[in-house]
Structures are given as structure tokens and as C-alpha cells.
Amino acid sequence: MNPYVYLASHTTLRGTIFTIVVIGLLIACPFSIGGDKSWVAPKSISGATTVNASGIFELVDKYDDLVVIDSRKTADFNQGHIEDSINLPDTKTSPESLAGILQSTDTAVVFYCNGIHCKRSSSAIKIAVSAGYTNIFWYRLGWDEWLSEGLPFSHNE
């Protein structure tokens, strides 16, 4: 057999097998790409008050020193975020990082992330509660609702 024909036929066979394996993995593990859509955020978190988009505007009117924390990855934040929000990914949230942003433990703060299938803001809130913060609000529906409502946003890209 011609070595070039042999190599070409085996390369094509390996490519076909690779494609079948990748498709099989995608079918078997649909949640491994793009997050786990089967997880749904709880309705509430102990130590935080849940708000919707209109609730954020009410908080802005009520608290002059309101801080809005976007708990998403920096790349997501750069693509779009609630105006004047501060990016502090949940993986970087700590008592020390919160103290660098919030004036005191009773400063009003809103946490949000991508929406009900995102765990980031709920994780950040649990850290804030355990650090003694007491005026915490959770925008549970997050970025998904903000965009669907056509509300104003900023981006860094």
C-alpha cells in the first residue's frame, strides 16, 4: 500500500473518531460548557434582602452611599455592567476586599451576577454576612433581567 494513502486514510479515521468523541461528550455533559443551568438560585439568602431591578432604583434614591458590586468575572463585567457598579468577582471577595470598598459594615450594598443560574453573587453575600455586613441587598435576577428590561449599562470594551 502507498504510504501516503495509508497515512491519509488513518488521519481521516482519527479525525472522524475524534469528532464522534467530542460530540458524544457534548451530548453527555451539556452543562459543562456555559455553566450549570440546572442550578437555580434560592429565593432568599439569610442576611440579605432580595430586590429586583426597580428595587435597585429605589435603593439609589434611599441611600446616598449605595455600593453596587458585580460579582461576575472581570471579562463579563468588561462586556457590560450596571452603571457605577464595582467589579469584585466572588473568587476575590473577602473581608479585606470588602473593607476596601465599603465604608463600614452598615453601608448599603447590592450584589449581583448573571441571574438565577449564577452562584457568584450568592457566594459573595455569604462572605459579606460572615464578615459582619448588615445592610446587604441581593439582586437575584441580575444581569439577565437588567438586559431584558433594557436598563442603562456601561461597558469597558
Give the topology, please:
Blueprint: H1 3-28, E1 48-51, H2 53-62, E2 67-70, H3 74-79, E3 81-82, E4 86-87, H4 95-101, E5 109-112, H5 120-130, E6 136-139, H6 142-148, E7 153-154
Task: Describe the structure concisely for a colleague.
The chain has 157 residues and is α/β, with parallel strands linked by helices.
Describe this structure in words.
- The protein is of the alpha/beta class and 157 residues long.
- The chain has two domains: 1-30; 48-154, Oxidized Rhodanese, domain 1 (3-Layer(aba) Sandwich).
- The protein has six helices and seven strands; from the N terminus they run H-E-H-E-H-E-E-H-E-H-E-H-E.
- The protein has helices spanning 3-28, 53-62, 74-79, 95-101, 120-130, 142-148; strands at 48-51, 67-70, 81-82, 86-87, 109-112, 136-139, 153-154.
- The strands form two sheets. It has a five-stranded parallel beta sheet with strand order 1-6-5-2-4. Strands 3-7 form a two-stranded antiparallel ribbon.
- It is globular and about 30 Å long.
- The protein starts with a helix and ends with a strand.
